Amino acid sequence: MTNKRSGNMWSHGFRLNKTISGNYESTWSKKNHISGRKNSKAKRLKTLPKNWTSRIFQAAIDSNTPFTDAIALMSITGCRPQEVGFGVTLLLTEDGSIEALINGAKTNGGVYGQEWRRFSVYSDSNEFKYLIDRLKMSNGKMVVQANAGAVCDKVTYLSKKCMPQLKGAATAYCFRHRFSGTLHNLGLDTESISMALGHCTDASQNHYSSAYRTSDGSFLIKDIKSEKKVKMKSSTKKPWIQRWQDNDSTLH
């Protein structure tokens, strides 16, 4: 693609010099369940079963859909469907995690949001394991890209197919709000969460879920970097963060 945001940022050095300022989380954060304020964005998640993400992913595998990579990607990174349309670059790291580089959507030419964000994740989910296998077959590097509208349609279709009892189907954005809830339950502060979601201000957290709605399992995130620093407008006190050092035996 000719869109500058869809290029390989590692090979072209797309503004990565801005990360030198230290705008990142340098250690793993381990899941620590904390209670968060409920909001309207969590309502849809509450209607979904606890293992809704794994059900949709398995339905994608069973149907052999070409959007399986995109669904797995949204599950572990919380990226927007449009960002899948731009193309998300994944790297397999030495510690067994997956590093994702996401070209931001909803930036209005750089006025809003983050033009790019980058972080590493580790999970014991089937979606993560699937992407690890795909990366191993691709020499440790791949770009996941698919039409945003088609991805949204496929997620809704698979949701209705594998969970017909639900009144409302899961949507592609449910993955993003579930990811937000996961980060809240990790104990990350609002600045780090905003960076991971691609927001330039922590006020955007008011529109995102703090509810955790997925199956029990391990999820870790580290090295959160973004194009620019987050503007802190909220007066919310930052929660305590429990750290998990890089040499944790779980990763080896």
Helical fraction equals 25-40%
What is the strand tally?
Answer: 7
Poorly predicted spans:
1-27, 30-41, 235-252
Which class best fits the helix and strand makeup? alpha+beta
| Mean pLDDT figure | 78
Classify the beta-strand content into a percent band: 5-15%
User: What is the CA-CA span between the terminal residues?
Assistant: 37 Å
**What is the number of helices?**
9
Order of helices and strands: HEHHHHEEEHEHHHEE
Main pleated-sheet profile? 5 strands, antiparallel
Please tell me the total number of domains. Answer: 1
Spatial extent as radius of gyration: 17 Å
Assign an overall shape. globular
Q: Within the largest sheet, what's the order of strands? A: 5-2-3-4-6
Q: How do the strands and helices of this protein lay out in sequence?
A:
Layout: H1 9-12, E1 28-29, H2 43-46, H3 52-63, H4 68-77, H5 81-86, E2 88-92, E3 98-103, E4 116-123, H6 126-137, E5 141-144, H7 148-162, H8 172-186, H9 190-197, E6 219-226, E7 243-244
Helix pairs in contact: 3-4, 3-7, 4-6, 4-8
Summary of the model, kept short:
With 252 residues, this protein is an alpha+beta fold. It has helices at 9-12, 43-46, 52-63, 68-77, 81-86, 126-137, 148-162, 172-186, 190-197; strands at 28-29, 88-92, 98-103, 116-123, 141-144, 219-226, 243-244. Helix 3 packs antiparallel against helix 4 (68-77), helix 4 packs across helix 6 (126-137) and helix 4 packs parallel to helix 8 (172-186).
